[in-house]
Specification:
Largest sheet: 10 strands, mixed
Number of domains: 3
Bound molecules: nicotinamide-adenine-dinucleotide
Distance between the termini: 63 Å
Strand content: 15-25%
Number of helices: 13
CATH class of the largest domain: Alpha Beta
Helix content: 25-40%
Radius of gyration: 26 Å
CATH topology of the largest domain: Isopropylmalate Dehydrogenase
Shape: elongated
Length: 478
């Protein structure tokens, strides 16, 4: 018996959760269920997190969480419960298998069988945003070495466990050399430990185009959070329907399983919704909690039901489908098929399924970190870079001198081009004078000069080398 937490969620959530649980229990899943309330009701009762402390304690205690989609009310102040749950419980890996069911579900990609492994805690989802000037806002993209090591190792261990042949990495490291560059670098390092698994890296733009056009070229794809969020929906949709895919959110101690679609409020309460996405999430859960035989039985019965053409409205197609059914009737059809196997689609065998263990992160010895300068960000409403360049030279000290100004990353001083459009947000680089070694006090001295000269500084970013390697990007055009 495994204790799990269940949340029935909002919109179509309660119907698809009841359908899913009825199938699992009929198949003999050994589940001891604690139900909690999360989502819209809780938000509207004034809890901006959408979850009570008691419900949190239940999730923390039981460790395994099966969650139906929830509605985040429109308007400010409500925090996404999904993002909070993933980050608070350290659910670093989001796994979404996307497989075609040709010829039973219409798809342009009959051979597609891709697993997207998405980093789930970092990247632009850190939610650290600031308005810095009238014209410019900023979102911090944070990528850590432990974060990259965990997700890339997970992707290779997943491939190993499930007999997958290749792991592909998608990044945009030709542009983001530090952040995506680190992700790619860690991918290359870890790939060396798995010589039996093929590995490759694609720049995300052409990789995404290839995935949309020729998904059978891919097997397991690992990527940072934002790209994974977008591409896993595309991958699910091109198998035939985003409503057929489930996802697993995996951490060292906790895991959450769900459908990838939302709460579809317009379809709620009408016995219309397709429970397949949540059922697929629940099957991933059964594999994770050591009940692979039940998972296999449910999956084979579901595939048989798909083959029989017993379809909900969203996937019903004249000529392919035989019966249009509601949520409840679909679940009953799957239950009636328990013990049966698909005839055309390959039946599944989950003999090897189980928890994918990855080693706890071991910190590398610290690199030698040397301060070599500072970028001072300035709010200035003028437009001529030569004028701000002249003003800022008053901030020079014996140790740090102005060497470059960029506007939205493009070098505009010295020797910019007058065609370059400039906003009110200027990044001003002060580099070390030959033969000197700056300290933090030297940065403060530069900032004090800004105050003395009426220059509006917004923030600073220290420039370091790590074991002699530059730890910051150059300006475009530098
Ligand atoms: P949605 O996924 O709820 O619906 C998109 C479309 O797909 C709709 O036309 C809907 O009718 C259809 N659809 C989705 N699931 C279906 C199913 N199981 N069976 C049949 N048809 C289905 O996306 P949305 O409309 O953008 O979002 C609605 C709400 O869901 C929002 O409040 C959003 O915040 C929330 N949401 C929650 C989650 C989650 O809890 N994991 C994820 C995404 C969106």
């Amino acid at each position: 018996m495994t204790k799990i937490t269940v949340a029935k969620g909002d919109g179509i959530g309660p119907e698809i959760m009841d359908a899913t649980l009825s199938i699992l229990l009929a198949a003999g899943a050994k589940l001891d269920i604690d139900e909690i309330d999360v989502g819209e009701k809780v938000y509207l009762a004034g809890n901006t997190a959408g979850i009570s402390n008691d419900a949190w304690e239940t999730i923390r205690k039981n460790k395994i969480f099966l969650k139906a989609p929830i509605t985040t009310p429109q308007g400010g102040g409500y925090k996404s419960l999904n993002v909070t749950t993933r980050k608070t419980l350290g659910l670093f890996a989001n796994v979404r298998p996307c497989k075609s069911l040709h010829p039973f579900i219409a798809t342009k990609h009959p051979k597609m069988d891709v697993v997207i492994v998405r980093e789930n805690e970092e990247d632009l989802y850190a939610g650290i945003e600031h308005q810095q000037t009238d014209e410019v806002v900023q979102c911090l993209k944070l990528i850590s070495r432990p974060g990259c090591e965990k997700i890339v190792t997970y992707a290779f261990e997943y491939a190993k466990k499930y007999g997958r042949k290749k792991v592909t990495c998608f990044t945009k490291d030709n542009i983001m050399k530090q952040t995506d560059g680190l992700f790619h670098k860690v991918f290359d390092e870890i790939a060396l430990k798995y010589p039996e698994i093929e590995n490759e890296h694609w720049i995300i733009d052409i990789g995404a185009a290839k995935l949309a056009d020729t998904p059978e070229a891919f097997d397991v794809i690992v990527m940072p959070n934002l790209y994974g969020d977008v591409l896993s929906d595309i991958a699910a949709q091109i198998t035939g329907s985003v409503g057929l895919a489930g996802s697993a959110n995996i951490g060292h101690d906790h895991a959450m399983f769900e459908a990838i679609h939302g709460s579809a409020p317009r379809r709620a309460g009408q016995n219309l919704a397709n429970p397949s996405g949540l059922l697929q999430g629940a099957i991933l859960m059964l594999k994770h909690i050591g009940q692979p035989d039940v998972a296999e039985k449910v999956q084979n019965a579901w595939l048989k039901t798909m083959e029989d053409g017993i379809h909900t409205y969203d996937i019903y197609k004249e000529g392919v489908s035989t019966q249009k059914v509601g949520t409840k009737e679909f679940a009953e059809a799957v239950v009636a098929n328990l013990g049966e196997e698909p005839q055309t689609l390959p039946k599944v065998n989950f003999k090897n399924a189980g928890i994918i263990e990855i080693p706890k992160h071991v910190r590398k010895p610290r690199a030698e970190k040397v301060l070599v300068g500072v970028d001072v960000f300035v709010d200035w409403e003028g437009t001529d870079p030569n004028i701000i360049g002249e003003k800022l030279e008053h901030m020079n000290t014996d140790v740090l001198n102005l060497t470059m100004i960029t506007n939205r990353g493009v070098k505009v001083w010295p020797k910019g081009y007058e065609e370059t459009f400039c906003t009110d947000h200027w990044r001003c680089r002060f580099s070390t004078v030959e033969g000197k070694q700056p300290s933090k006090s030297d940065i403060i001295a530069v900032l004090n000069k800004a105050v003395d000269n009426g220059i509006d500084t917004i923030k600073t970013e220290n420039l370091y080398t790590f074991d002699g390697v530059r730890g910051y990007s150059l300006g475009q055009g530098q």
